[in-house]
Amino acid sequence: MVPEREDILVIVGPTGVGKTALAVEVASRAGFHILSADSRQIYRLMDIGTAKPTPEEREKAPHYLIDLAWPNVHFSVADFQSAGKEKMSELEAQGIPFMIVGGSPFYLYALMGSFFFPTVGADPQLRESLEREAQEKGSDFLHSRLKEVDPISASRIHPNDLKRIIRALEVWELTGRPLSSFTYRKTEVEGFRIVGLRMEKEDLRRRLEKRTEEMFRRGLVEEVRTLLERGYGPELVPMQSIGYKEVIEFLSGALTLEEAKGLIVKRSMQFAKHQMTWFKRDQRIRWIDLEAFPDFEMLAKTLI
Question: Each residue of 140-174: pLDDT tens digit?
Fold first, then answer.
């Protein structure tokens, strides 16, 4: 039976809150397959730092839309939407029920609607990465990059107008198209049952601290070192993301191990705040306070 649109469950929430664990619990009980909507899990070789579902989790429930591109390949959210819509159509044709899980707003809404870019706000993590690069290399450096990918927008934006430079580069990175090429169209995202997970700030911080320690225990430093040895340099956007940037700085001697861990937690908390700000705009999300449930097993039963 092909699932009706209103039957498609979508789980959203900030980084580290437990979306994947809950999704696997729900999927394994209900026979769902999982579409991942994550801007970093699309990259191959970047497993630990992106908190990809583990082999054990993938065995419990099939996951799609991960490992789609190499870290040095430009894979826009428009490319992601195309791959996602194709997979959704394929699953529907086979009568396989599926759910969508993720914390990257652009990617989530690309799957849920007739998304025509750039009709929504910023991707917080990408914007933060560009802002850090501007602090290190200056607005002229980013403006020069913009000239290469979108000369029309570059001619309209002053080299010192960092906000607009970042916006134009952000649109290019997300969509693969220059900002100057866009018109606007209404986004439609009806027909989905959206559930949001949230918890108290200090509880989330503790979860992120624990997750960060677990990432290092599983080999995050070795993962980053291997990426660098393969030629995936620190200038690449995926390598500028949280977890990878800090480990690169640790390997270069700019940070101690504990400083790197602390920065990962700090920046993850900042990113979580950006995510929640974005999601709060969507009045259709039914928010669940995780403190009310002793475990994901009990919560999963309420969602099936």
Answer: 899 998 999 889 888 878 787 787 898 888 888 87
Fold annotation for 124-181: Histone, subunit A (1.10.20)
- Residue 30: both structure tokens together: 């209900």
In the block, tokens 């099936």 appear at: 304
pLDDT in tens, 30-59: 999 999 999 999 999 999 999 999 999 999
Instruction: For residue 262, give Cα distances in angstroms to 105, 141, 205, 255.
Output: 25, 29, 11, 10
Note whether 271 and 285 are within 8 A (CB). Answer: no
5-115+187-303 has which fold?
A: Rossmann fold (3.40.50)
**Would you state the structure tokens that stand for residue 27, as one six-digit string?**
């999927």
| Measured distance CA(100)–CA(102) in Å, rounded | 7
pTM for the full predicted model: 0.80
Give residue 135's identity as a one-letter amino acid code.
Q
